[in-house]
Amino acid sequence: MAIWKNLFGTAPTNAKAPDISLPAACDEFLVIGSPDLSEDFCSDLIISSKSLNDWIKPNLINNTALSGEFIERARRVSGWLETHTNNGKASTIPADAYAIVANSASGLVNTTGTSVRCRDCGVIYDRVEVEESSTDLEIYLEISTRWTCPRGHLLYSEDGGIHMSIAD
Ligand SMILES: [Zn+2]
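Above: query sequence and zinc ion SMILES. Below: predicted holo structure tokens.
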């Protein structure tokens, strides 16, 4: 093993590249959140393909807390995002690419290249109001996230929580 590492830089891996399906080319913009993709949304979260790729590299590909297969999938999506052309078009993110950003809406909203279309106003906003509240239920911390547009319409709502373990 040590010799292999010295010769080739990295140890051989048995991890098989995930079989993922992506269109031949990527549009300039992608819808990565909508009621069709997740029931948390009543708006459309839109991001430029370039901005999404800039986010994937540090947050997913270089994230050692993620599994090798997930990182390999993120790397393949990143390669696909590089195929984007400045065609001005927006399309819904393909399912296999959505799988790696499905839980990242809160980390992406209000970042560069991201916007949210309020379906009530029909307006696309670069920044929206994000409100997070938590309720401490002793062994369970309930966390609620709400996004609203400047006119007060609900854009996104998510209820989650963290189980607290009490160490003696
Ligand atoms: Zn609105």
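The radius of gyration is 19 Å.
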